[in-house]
Write a structure and sequence with these properties.
Elements lengths: L3 E3 L2 E4 L3 H12 L4 E5 L3 H6 L5 E3 H7 L8 H4 L1 E3 L1 E6 L2 E6 H5 L3 E3 L2 H14 L3 E4 L2 E6 L7 E5 L5 E5 L2 E4 L8 H5 L5 E16 L8 E5 L2 E7 L4 E8 L10 H11 L10 E14 L3 E2 L2 E3 L5 E2 L7 H22 L3 H4 L1 H23 L7 H15 L2 H12 L5
Parallel strand pairs: 1-12, 2-3, 2-13, 3-9, 6-15, 13-20
Antiparallel strand pairs: 4-8, 5-8, 6-7, 10-11, 11-12, 14-17, 14-18, 15-16, 16-17, 18-21, 19-20
Bound molecules: flavin-adenine dinucleotide (FAD).
Length: 392
């Protein structure tokens, strides 16, 4: 007999989406079991997103003191777009009355994990889901292996796939692990983490004839920077001096503060939206449902926007027996997802230099950049999307 755990909601994946969902469900009295194939240490030390929309921060405020975003994170009131040798600041508060926060994703995860464990949540690390079964019954199941490789199952009233871009839950919803709308880009980001003071107070998004660079911060002593590269680039192909040269030539006008580089990675660019987000009693949220290129800083924020909608829908279903909010979850989530897909694609094409770009393309791109920064409406569109559309 395979051991079976029973709960109301089984959540596959303890990323920002899965952990926040379990918190919101717990707040209305719905218990859940969250599993993740990685160890707690791995989850808490993987460097990923860094920019939180205002609505994301407000939702994290519901954790109370457990969320350190307002004490440790930094509010950013703008970004700089740099091109043709000039910087143009996009001032969020004056344009849309909102802001973003720089607070790394792994710090969000530390806060959420600590809060879930303090609340006595059933949160299991090192547990891998192999599949999700029986989506169209009222007792869907997660077929899993525990940390010792032993099989076990979770039987629930509802299963949520928050298991990231390589989701196994997706097959239970769309019929295949790849079922969705997909786009791949001909460039990637070479990302570095270095020990150095910040080179700027706010993020610099720089378009240059040599390609794109993003100058971002992490803390007073650690910085995160990226430059556009070929997706096949080997991270070992550059010496530290070459990396600084690549970054520096793409941000003319700023002298970067250099320091030892202690992490490097190549981040491929993909856009994806699953064909379906809901089947019977299994739903997808976050990167399991969609991925965006990182230029617009939308990935984690979009995951959290899905979770807000799904938590309300599951509350109505499991507490009041009202299935209507769940039935409209895909449509309401997709409304924002496609806006974010467009914004992420637009920021990417606005700022990167395509490998086959002609002189015409380059001059047209500068015309587009000028159309944005020289127009109140253009700057306001960017500010509104970057800080996040109000939650519906
Ligand atoms: C380098 C980088 C920079 C980024 N920058 C930004 C940014 O600035 N702003 C932004 O908003 N977004 C950014 N993103 C995107 C953001 O990190 C993701 O969109 C976000 O992590 C999605 O959260 P999630 O909970 O849906 O999925 P994930 O964070 O991917 O979590 C999924 C979890 O599921 C677990 N899992 C997977 N398969 C299984 C299985 N079979 N069984 C059990 N567990 C499983 C994984 O271990 C993982 O912990 C960035 C991403 C990267 C890689």
């Amino acid at each position: 007999m395979t051991p079976t755990v029973r709960t109301r909601v089984a959540i596959v994946g303890a990323g920002p989406a899965g952990l926040l969902l379990s918190h919101l469900l717990d707040a209305v009295g719905i218990p859940s079991v969250v599993i993740d194939q990685r160890s707690r240490d791995e989850i808490e030390s993987t460097i990923r997103a860094g920019i939180l929309e205002q609505g994301t921060v407000e939702l994290l405020d519901t954790l109370g003191d457990a969320s350190r975003v307002r004490t440790v994170g930094n509010r950013h009131d703008g970004i700089e777009l740099r091109f043709a040798g000039e910087g143009h600041r996009i001032d969020f508060p004056s344009l849309v009355g909102r802001a973003v926060w720089l607070y790394p994703q792994h710090e969000v995860l530390k806060d959420l994990i600590a809060a879930r464990l303090a609340a006595g949540q059933d949160l299991r690390f090192g547990v891998t889901a192999e599949s999700v079964q029986d989506a169209e019954t009222d007792r869907p199941r997660v077929i899993a292996r525990d940390a010792d490789g032993q099989p076990f199952e979770i039987e629930a009233e509802f299963v949520v796939g928050s298991d990231g871009s390589r989701s196994v839950a997706r097959a239970a919803v769309t019929g295949s692990s790849t079922g969705g709308y997909f786009r791949e880009y001909p460039f990637a980001w070479f990302g570095i983490l270095c020990e150095a003071p910040p080179s700027s107070d706010e993020l610099i998004y720089s378009n240059s004839p040599d390609g794109f660079a993003l100058i971002s911060q992490r803390s007073a002593s650690v910085q995160r920077m990226y430059f556009q590269c070929d997706p096949e680039t080997d991270t070992a192909a550059y010496s530290e001096a070459q990396l600084w040269d690549e970054l520096q030539k793409r941000v003319p006008g700023t002298t970067l503060k250099e320091g030892p580089i202690f992490q490097r990675d190549v981040l491929r660019f993909r856009s994806f939206v699953a064909h379906e987000l809901l089947r019977g009693r299994v739903a997808l949220v976050g990167d399991a449902a969609h991925t965006v290129p990182p230029t617009g800083a939308k990935g984690m924020n979009l995951a959290i926007a899905d979770v807000r909608l799904l938590a309300d829908a599951l509350g109505a279903l499991l507490l009041d027996g009202d299935a209507r909010p769940l039935e409209t979850y895909p449509e309401r989530a997709l409304h924002r997802i496609w806006k974010a897909q467009h914004f992420s694609w637009w920021m990417t094409s606005l700022l990167h230099v395509a490998p086959d770009a002609t002189d015409f393309d380059r001059r047209r791109q500068l015309g587009e950049l000028r159309s944005v920064v020289e127009s109140d409406h253009g700057r306001a569109y960017l500010a509104e999307a970057y800080t996040g559309w109000p939650q519906s």
